[in-house]
Write a structure and sequence with these properties.
The structure is a single chain. The radius of gyration is 13 Å and the shape is globular. By secondary structure, the chain is of the alpha+beta class. α1 runs antiparallel to α2. The longest helix has 18 residues, at about 5-20. The protein contains three helices and three strands, in the order αααβββ. The two termini are about 25 Å apart. β1 and β2 (about 75-80) form a beta hairpin. The relative contact order is 0.15.
């Protein structure tokens, strides 16, 4: 595991903790830092991190708090408060 991958993992956990404590601006900044770090080092983001962040507004998503999760035919639809939707197949 490279230093960049370790830092992305750490930023993901910090974003999760900040969102749990309702520090949304801090969580958003951690998400932005992690994405920028992944782009610079050409590293894919972890699947869990991708699934719990909004691509449009960089918010760390918490189902029931700032995201709506619905099940449809063969996929999950996650809707952020900003209106952005993400669809993922069942696993």
């Amino acid at each position: 595991m490279t230093i960049a991958e370790e830092r992305i993992e750490r930023l993901a956990s910090l974003a999760r903790d900040a969102a749990a404590e309702c520090h949304d601006d801090r969580a958003r900044e951690y998400v932005r830092l992690a994405r920028r770090l992944a782009e610079r080092n050409r590293i894919p983001l972890p699947k869990e991190f991708k699934r719990f962040t909004c691509d449009a507004c960089d918010t760390y998503l918490r189902p029931g708090k700032n995201a709506r999760v619905r099940l449809q035919d063969g996929h999950v639809v996650v809707t952020c408060d900003c209106g952005e939707q993400a669809r993922y197949p069942y696993e």
